[in-house]
Design goal:
mainly beta
């Protein structure tokens, strides 16, 4: 608990370095634990080729099912707080607007997928950003995070990186599981799942409900969801079918209103979301060297949104949206491998999008102006990817893709990366360059008041150099990455023409340091520290929501075969955030406010009382730290939860 006494960035960095030194000494003394080979784990994100983490030449992080279960978080949003280079803020508790900045990129610069199906919605006013708080952690098997633009693989949408949430697969024997959880202030969650074998594969189905209670005044959230996944083999093909339906409702004070502390009016935003996706994949091994794959997916989202606006309404008037978005994608991929030193992948895809919004804004609180639009967009892409090993210990990754969307010129993106393993030392170097682009959102193009149909795609470039060091026969894995991202043609609102335009250029620079280790007494430890510097070129302004430093640690200790303890620690440096649009002397702030640094500790305990019964206790914000991630929105205080898991 003494960690909380350090308040400066220098002390934090020194503390983590000291912990690392002590960690390495402890691991050297242990010597008897079996080594872990993190780099050998297979991944499916950021490349079209069958890959392990060691095959990549960029920065990659993986949250495993084991880590997810041990940490016992409520949502995917809370799980992502322990990822280097990924900064998260939320307006109060679950239900408040959440934002995620990947290495300084805007929240809508990250492509988000669930089981490989993109779930970003370009009809929302935030340009297509995704709220991870709607994803319950109960059904997640792993989360894969790739830093840097991935347009050479995925096309439009991945300016800053890609995140793929992979749900749980079937098991070799029939298993049913019921999870029940109760918490302070009305928190409730339940999930029933069934998993089993099926003809050279397996299946899983999950059904759940969650209610966040009232952890923060004026902020509420509840949801229901259904997940399904089926893997089998039929007619010589490996088949996978996935589906998800989620319905959520939330209410909270409007974004940047000053929240329960400063808001002038008590009226709150209300949002209802209905998400549904369906995906199918078939893969054939044609011969010894060739394989081919067909994928198809359909994603739809319906959103109902009402906002009372922010007094005096000149910057945020009352508004409402009734939006409907659909995306259909068909994808073909072929892979060839005849030689150990060469892998090649080629592919093509078609994306059909339709967005419709029946919307209005209330002009100065006097009368309603319609902002309706209906847009259709078809996009076509082709790509080539290759992995070469020209010499021992050297790996070269290459990718190029061409995309053509209706109303836009052809866009070509590239990626090139190289890695080198220093023989006998456990040291890997990598260097990577990538390009990204993002088509304008439907909201930016079509909104009847601020929309601009002549907007160009936003573009990005990324340079990255990294080092990974394996120590003590794989017991410790340390990584250090330095990066520079350049974003241009960013969509921004022009107050003079009262419409969206392409104009801003933003540069982000930084470094990420992380450690994963297996310690004595079977303890698992992860630590990270991230630095970020942002610049809006030619403009005297700062970007909000991006602290210069942030870091954290997570440690799991299996006290016995039946009892385990997990502690998570998160720390954020000071952070610029927006406040209310006007000021009352001595009462509330206005404009932008520098939020104070904060730290937080979460505790998770688990007892296996019988083979079919497990009891879990979690305490969020164990030390009851008082802090804010958004002006006027207090974060949750000391928040206990207790649950049981019954397996039968």
């Amino acid at each position: 608990m003494c960690l909380l006494q350090y308040n400066s960035a220098g002390h934090r960095a020194l503390l983590l370095a000291s912990l690392l030194s002590a960690l390495c000494a402890s691991v050297a003394a242990a010597g008897n634990s079996a080594p872990q080979h993190y780099s050998e784990q297979l991944i499916v994100t950021g490349t079209s080729l069958e890959s392990s983490i060691a095959d990549l030449s960029g920065s990659f992080h993986l949250l495993s099912e084991e880590q997810i279960v041990r940490r016992n978080k409520r949502s995917a949003l809370d799980l992502l707080r322990q990822i280097p280079g990924l900064q998260i803020s939320q307006q109060g508790g679950r239900g408040g607007v959440s934002t995620m900045y990947l290495r300084g990129g805007e929240p809508n610069f990250t492509m988000v997928m669930v089981d490989g199906i993109e779930v970003n919605d370009p009809t929302n006013s935030r340009g297509g950003s995704f709220d991870f708080s709607i994803l319950q952690a109960d059904t997640i098997e792993r989360i894969e995070i790739v830093h840097g633009p991935q347009s050479a693989t995925y096309g439009s949408g991945s300016l800053a990186g890609a995140i793929n949430v992979v749900t749980r697969a079937g098991t070799e024997r029939l298993t049913q599981q019921l999870d029940l959880e109760l918490g302070d202030r009305g928190t409730f969650a339940t999930c029933y799942s069934i998993r089993g074998p099926l003809a050279d594969g397996g299946y899983t189905f999950s059904l759940g409900k969650t209610d966040s209670g009232i952890n923060v005044p004026g902020v509420e959230f509840d949801s229901e969801y259904f997940n399904g996944k089926l893997n089998t083999r039929y007619a010589g093909a490996d088949i996978e079918l996935v589906t998800r339906f989620g319905q959520s409702e939330r209410s909270a004070f409007p974004e940047d209103s000053g929240g329960p502390q400063f808001a002038v009016q008590e009226d709150r935003d209300f949002e209802k979301l209905d998400d549904f996706h369906l995906g199918a994949r078939a893969r054939w091994q044609l011969n010894k060297h060739w394989s081919t794959e067909l994928r198809a997916s359909w994603f739809t989202r319906e959103q109902q949104f009402q906002s009372p606006g922010i007094v005096p309404f000149d910057t945020a008037p009352p508004r409402g949206d009734d939006a409907d978005y659909q995306r259909t994608k068909v994808h073909w991929h072929g892979s060839w491998r005849k030689y150990r030193w060469l892998q090649v992948g080629v592919g093509a895809d078609t994306v059909l999008e339709r967005g419709e919004d029946d919307a209005f804004i209330n002009f100065l609180g006097l009368f309603e102006l319609p902002t309706d639009y209906v847009l259709n967009r078809n996009s076509y892409g082709q790509y080539l990817e290759a992995r070469l090993r020209p010499a021992k210990h050297w790996t070269l990754n290459l990718g190029v893709r061409n995309d053509k969307a209706e109303g836009q010129a052809n866009t070509v993106t590239n990626r090139i990366g190289m890695s080198y393993t220093l023989s006998g030392t456990g040291t890997d170097f990598h260097i990577n360059y990538g390009q990204g682009f993002k088509l304008p959102s439907f909201f930016a193009l079509g909104n009847a008041i601020v929309g601009n149909p002549d907007l160009k795609p936003e573009r990005s470039e990324n340079y990255e150099i990294g080092l990974t060091q394996s120590l003590y026969d794989g017991q410790v894995l340390a990584s250090f990455d330095v990066f520079r991202n350049k974003y241009r043609d960013l969509v921004d609102f022009d107050s003079q023409t009262f419409r969206n335009v392409n104009r801003n250029k933003v540069i982000t620079r930084g470094a990420d340091f992380s450690v994963r280790a297996r310690m004595p007494m079977e303890m698992d430890l992860t630590m990270y520290l991230s630095y970020l510097d942002t610049e809006v070129v030619g403009v005297n302004s700062k970007l909000r929501g991006r602290p210069r430093w942030h870091g954290g640690a997570s440690i799991y200790y299996p006290v016995s075969d039946h009892f385990g303890v997990n502690l998570d620690y998160v720390w954020n440096h000071s952070n610029l955030e927006a406040a209310k649009p006007f000021e009352e002397a001595g009462v509330n702030p206005a404009g932008y406010v520098e939020l104070t640094p904060f730290s937080r500790v979460d505790l998770a305990l688990s007892w296996r009382l019988a083979p079919s019964l497990q009891v879990k206790l979690a305490i969020d914000n164990l030390l009851d730290q008082q802090y804010q991630e958004a002006v006027g929105f207090p974060s949750i205080g000391f928040e206990p939860r207790i649950g049981v898991q019954i397996t039968f």
